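Hi R.,

Here's the input for the 5'-O-[(L-methionyl)-sulphamoyl]adenosine complex you asked about:
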Amino acid sequence: MKPKYYITTPIYYVNDAPHIGHTYTEIAADALARWKRMQGYDVMFLTGTDEHGMKIASSAADFSRTPQEHVDINCQKFIDAWERMEISYDDFIRTTQKRHKNTIQYIFSRLHEKGDIYKGTYSGWYCKPCESYWTDFQLQDKKTCPDCARQVEKIEEEAYFFALSKYQDKLLKYINANPDLIRPQSRRNEVIKFVESGLKDFNVSRTNFTWGIQVPFDTKHVIYVWFDALINYISAIGYPDDKDKFGKWWPADAHLMGKEIVRFHAVIWPAILMALDLPLPKIIFGHGWWTVEGQKMSKSKGNVVDPMKLADEFGLDAVRYFLMREVPFGADGDFSRSSLISRYNSDLANDLGNLVSRTLTMIDKYFGGKVPEASKMTDSNPDAIFSELIIETPKKYSEAMDNILLSEALSFVWGLISFANSYIEQKAPWALAKRGKTQELANVMVNLFEALRLVSVLICQFMPAPSKEMRGQLGLNKEAVNCDILEKDITVKKGSPMFPRLAK
Ligand code: MSP
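And here is the predicted structure with 5'-O-[(L-methionyl)-sulphamoyl]adenosine in place:
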């Protein structure tokens, strides 16, 4: 039996089209899913859309659409974007689907029977645009939302509460006993502090709008959108009815998300799972946020970056590579056209594109396009260093990928590429050819070829199409992509230059 790997992205609000922030999580999850498939895992990569709540209902009203029409139209934008971005998800869940609604209502009733959901009165402040509830303490005498600075309104209403406080100690114990659960470390520390400061029961139903899943036994209430949304991770894999499917995939191996929603995933979600007596996910990873030219991305500023337009202008691979390489996964990043162009030109056009073209030109020129046989490698530098790098790079890459250190994984690949470029200068193959040192020349070509073969395997999770193109030019099988498959009698087929330079 193959080992399994279950990875998820957040489900996105469908009040608008996807932007570069959503695309970031999606590409990261895609790279990991592809990597695990390559390693022989049976992978479930889940993504989807979060379609309920007051914000979505009011955005539908702005367009004079019914909420359902509105979410159908906007959900399609996500589906189209992920197709354009070559996202290899296995399932796409929408919270308006029947499979999801059934699970939510089942869980709500079950936790109510158990006493973990109970009826009470909610009193506090509400920010309509953010759908956030605030306490007096949080507002600190102001009457504006701490997130968006807009006016908040006082509300008092009957609501159902989830007994979060009951799980405080158990959760803290679990987080402390599992140091790798919440990543990176800085987010873990924030969560621990938050839990230690005391968890309060919170309201999980609303009566001030109707666009949501009804509380099954009290239909004037709809279920709070975050309670509804988090459960997608188990409704999609058949909980509670499809025991085989659920048993196969749960617990999730990795939940990826942006840093601002780590608290929902690392506190509320585990508590819901504990209430259901289900195991907790293995990794909760909160990545950083992208600003645009130093500014927070927002519609009002008009600086929202559309990933589709970006891919049309610079090529999909420039976008995928830039987002994954530019900042360590977990840290914040800044997007600008100039940094995308320089990253592309230096890493892809100069370093990799040139290496492919120089190596294939030399194999063509000196060996008629046939990859020569190596003799026993010399153990003098730089050959020894190169051989060592060829062995070590896939190992380091693999370890980084398994720890969701995506930019680091790529930096190991680029370490190999840079070394290969400097190796050409040091070995000066043209001089070896002149002096008739054919065997040494063959060794140099074999080293370079082997480095490129590995690179074609290690970039394929990040840039699937260029990896294929590169393998075609190297004369390798385009489908059997694996570090360990060594092919024989290879003839290279140099094609048009890969990654042509972008104009500034
Ligand atoms: N619907 C909730 C998630 C529910 S998951 C059970 C939600 N949706 S969202 O559409 O607002 O955001 C989805 C993801 O996009 C979040 O992980 C968020 O961090 C990410 N990003 C939104 N803007 C971003 C940037 N500017 N930069 C990086 N990621 C950002 O929250």
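One thing worth noting: Residues 141 and 304 are 33 Å apart (CA to CA).

Cheers,
M.
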